[in-house]
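Field reference: sequence -> structure
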Amino acid sequence: MRKRKYWLTAGIALVSIGVLYYFSKTTLTAQAVIVEEVHAETIVVADDSGLRTTVRIPPGIRELIRTDGNYYITYKKRMGQSPKLKSIKPLEIVDGNDPDFAAQDPDRRFSYLDRLPTAKREALEKFLKERTLSYLSGFTPEDMMLAYLYGLSVGDPDFLHAIAYRGGGLPDADTFRKEYFEYAQHLDAATAVHYRYYDSISVDPETASENQVTALITVGIGTITDTMAFGLRKEDGVWKPDLYHAVVHRKDQATGRSEESQASFQFDLRGADGRMYRLRMIPVQERKSVVEHPWAGGIEGDVLLEGTYRLAAVPDGSDEPSDTIPLRFANASGAGDAGDAAQFNMSRRMNYAITPDDDGHTELPSILVISQYASSNGNVFYPFAIDGEGRIRHVLFDEEGGKAYGQFLSEPLEYGGSGEFTGSFYNNAEGLRTSLTYHFDPDEFTLKLIEERPTKLHPED
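Structure field:
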């Protein structure tokens, strides 16, 4: 009897040891992968090193998995069995605090880099080392928002300067670094922490254009939702965060300087929504001088302002701008880019506002006309207006040859009534004065040429 009891106890012990050994050979793997093949019962995935693994999947999820998709997966593998899928998530929605994510590396902290697909994360890591912009050419605006937030999270002004839109009056790297550490780093770090649990990043389709978009990043908890809108512009074939004006704004707040007190000039405009706005010209960098030696662009004593600027539209009754854009000038023909630098003769009527107010056209928005000296015969005039969403819009000249940002005129653009604007230019070589009449299209924000009438300056000739 004792022998039988002994062998029974020994048998149970051996079975227990076998079970423990079996489960000790069960491993849990969590990693970012690319799904290379999708079958009815399995998927084939490859990790960053190219190592391929066949993983069994539950019934019914085959249609939910994309071939060539970037995913974060966890799977179990037991001795003698093929790996079995435990969880799978698109890489872009993985939470850095997910227990499965932490299983890969318990000491790993959240990083916005890990929200990027593997190939783009590697491209950004190469950019961090080499600063070669072409690595970012395939990044979407959403990808660049993650890159921007990564820069905030690590407090790297040199990286932020390297990816920033340069058309917004961006200073040199040393100046930017100094201003960033002094005025922006603390608040930017808080922004990076605030949005680490973001729900979504998307492009606002209502404001998107070929070379300019607004990215929206949304975070929520309970009944509270917070969304940050951030502008990006395409430059050098890359979507770049338009970030410097935010640094300037924080500098102004820290130094107690209001935008109103900084403005080189400002005008009251009526927006397309009928609301009144104060449109301000804010200097990014500016030099003031007085003309000592007369020339075609100024006489002795004229005051000149030269520099780079941004336009800010502030709705009536508000202290915060509804839109801010860098002031840039396309060539009068509309081809190419005449750059950022502007020069204003403040002693002449180079910049002015037109508010149509004749019967039947009071619904038209005001137009701000900004001009730049071109020759002794005239200036190039650039019109702007504010649309129904409070955004600052270029008003394009629409002529037979196409649309242009600016128009050379010898006499200023003026309102002629009934939604029409007039101007003229001289041709000294042929002795002609050509009068132009445009009709404002409030839907397209264009001035369409409807009449061109040349007349001889000296009919007797």
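Note: The longest helix spans residues 2-24.
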